[in-house]
């Protein structure tokens, strides 16, 4: 349930940033609001998704779930 509340919060913030981007008149402000909206959308939808290994990790045969002993 806690993750659902977090996702709802981030989605609400993303929607607010999109509205602000559409209302902004200065290109830098528009860009900043779209950037923030993207950040909030990433946060909302990244929960529970395992990140792909980096190219370096792939080259070294490493995974994110490796046990460190």
Kindly describe this structure.
By secondary structure, this protein is an all-alpha fold. The protein has a domain at 2-48. It has helices spanning 2-23, 27-45, 55-59.
| Number of continuous helical runs | 3
Gyration radius over CA: 17 Å
Principal-axes geometry comes out as: flat
The amount of beta strand, in percent, is under 5%
Give the topology, please.
Blueprint (H helix, E strand, L loop, with lengths): L1 H22 L3 H19 L9 H5 L10
Search tags:
69 residues, mainly alpha, flat
Short description:
With 69 residues, the chain is mainly alpha-helical. The chain has helices at residues 2-23, 27-45, 55-59.
């Amino acid at each position: 349930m806690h993750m659902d509340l977090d996702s709802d919060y981030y989605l609400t913030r993303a929607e607010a940033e999109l509205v602000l981007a559409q209302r902004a008149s200065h290109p830098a402000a528009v860009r900043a609001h779209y950037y923030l909206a993207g950040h909030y959308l990433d946060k909302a939808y990244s929960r529970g998704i395992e990140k792909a290994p980096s190219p370096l990790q792939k080259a070294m045969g490493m995974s994110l779930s490796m046990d460190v002993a």
